[in-house]
Amino acid sequence: MTEKQKLFADEYLIDLNATRAYRVAYPSVKKDETARANASRLLTNANVKKHIDDRLEEIHNEKTADAQEVMEYLTSVLRGESTSEEIVVEGCGDGCSEARTMEKRPSEKDRLKAAELLGKRFGLYTDKVDMDADMDLHITVDYGEDDTR
């Protein structure tokens, strides 16, 4: 992969605008149609595509919560172990007030919501019907008296 192709791929990852990325990597191209067509062609280049896919995977791994992280967070809220910061306004006399930050544990409502989400995840709230049936299907069509079929 050339340096310009790498620059194109890295620029493309900023906002997924291939035309803009192509213009950054190849500033001598002035026409929109040319930049658009060449950018589209570059996106199908195996090396460029692999570089983009690899970077997207890195970004995904660094920034995206996985199922385990979500479950651990919901569990910590359910158990009242997590804290959040809230801004409160306190009076300080003579009609003045000031804002300050304080840590707050999950409310009963927050804990109940976490329990609900965890319960849904584990299928605790579904009515399960286990039906094991062996039957034949017979369809009868009644055409009425006027039909001579």
UniProtKB/TrEMBL annotation:
Superkingdom in the source lineage: Bacteria
Keywords per UniProt: Viral genome packaging, Viral release from host cell
Residues making up the signal peptide according to the UniProt record: none
Gene Ontology terms describing biological process: chromosome organization
Entry annotated with the keyword Electron transport: no
Pfam families (UniProt xref): Terminase_2 (PF03592)
Name of the protein this chain belongs to: Terminase small subunit
Organism: Candidatus Anaerostipes avistercoris
Lineage: Bacteria, Bacillati, Bacillota, Clostridia, Lachnospirales
